[in-house]
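Pilot study result, target chain (487 residues):
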Amino acid sequence: MNERPVALLPGLSTDVSDTPRALRGGGERSAKARGVPLLLMGVDAIALAIAEILAIYLTPGPAVSPSSLAGLVVLVAPFPLFAVLSLAANGLYVRWSHQLLTNSFIEFRSIVNSLALAGVVDLGWQVLCSHHGTSIDLEPMVLVVAVGLAMVAIPSGRALCRAGARRSGSRHRIRVLILGSGTVASQLARYLSWDPRITLLGCVDDDPAPGHEVLGSIDDLPRLCEDLGIDQLLVGFSRTHPASALDRLRTLSPDVAISIVPRYFELLSPRSTVQEFGGLPVLDLSRGSLSVTARVAKRCFDIIGSLVLLGITAPIMISVAVAVRVTSPGPVLFRQQRVGRRERRFVIFKFRSMTVGSEERRGTSDVDGPLFKMHSDPRVTRVGRLLRHASIDELPQLFNVLKGDMSLVGPRPFIPSESRQIVGAGARRFEVRPGLTGLWQVSGRSNLSFDDLVRLDYLYVASWSLWWDLRILWHTPRAVLKGRGAY
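Predicted structure:
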């Protein structure tokens, strides 16, 4: 086959340095990738067995002493077996591309549900065996402790397994192709570029939009997926009649995961679900509820969470306050007006990361729109640069949360001049308190455009749930540690 240059979408910046390797050996890597779910299954089984054995010997109560290795196997084996079956039923052993991109919070929830079900089934199994005169059984507390230990052991084992699999196997990353071109394809490309685990190779289309290069036509899909070692195909919007694409999509290898990007995907959230309406599959937007009960629950969660986090971070905050005070003249805290719920203004607290009087000495912004951001701001102190990179400068906002000006999770708090630029549906951000973290924090931070921030804030408010707040908080430490978009 003649190698063709990879056609990227306008404005897309992705790493395609390993394309020649893919052209030569995509099939071999796919074969390795298919073995990863089996590897995860084995790692989970080992973690479950270790958790149960530790529970047997750590749980106070009547000692359990199997007289032989066979007795120990009979005692321990049912719980890991039931748990692995339950994990499989919850979709935790799907194809490699989905495993690599699995949302860890959703996965943890599935793990907890699977372990709870396995514990109940195993308890029933033990009761059934005891009625049939089996002398080997477990105390209920042993199963409770085993489930608790497995909640730690399984995610830890899976994280190590994924990290090892990514380091081996030719630095495998998810290789993606888009069916379609135009504005929507460019939007998809921009979203995918935020994830370092994804390599977007380009798009295919019979009638590409003007100015958009493609790798080939829809008829070339099977060949391109095979030669480029494609893991995931995103079906976007093409001007070609869908009947032409259907035949080609049906002939693709089962190794290629196919996902359909729905129209108006900007309105969808993780809470959206597929429903049946008059025999048709439809996507339910699941509009968020901001009832009085929901607001009370969110506020109680904010108070308890901020008090806990203040207690945990107190030593860090004291150390940072001393460092800021010693290394540059001026106050420890930086105060600034922001716009909160119902467009009320409040004073936000942050550790000072710039020299005194920096607000009056602004340079040229590096981003479009009303936001002011500079990648290398000369006004930032040496200590301040470290604080910003790790988002430690925002810890005093926990006092804003405790006061009721902010929430742990919510829209990004804008200054008045930025807030005045928000019109239309984006104004729904003022229905809730701004957040210490939010979708903007876990989706790119300062790398996002103003329009992206407004869109994410609308999506958060329109689809709010307490469970989604927990999910965002779960992902915030990873986003902070990576430091992407922090400046």
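One observation from the pilot: Residues 1-29 have pLDDT under 50 and may be disordered. A full batch analysis is planned for the follow-on phase.
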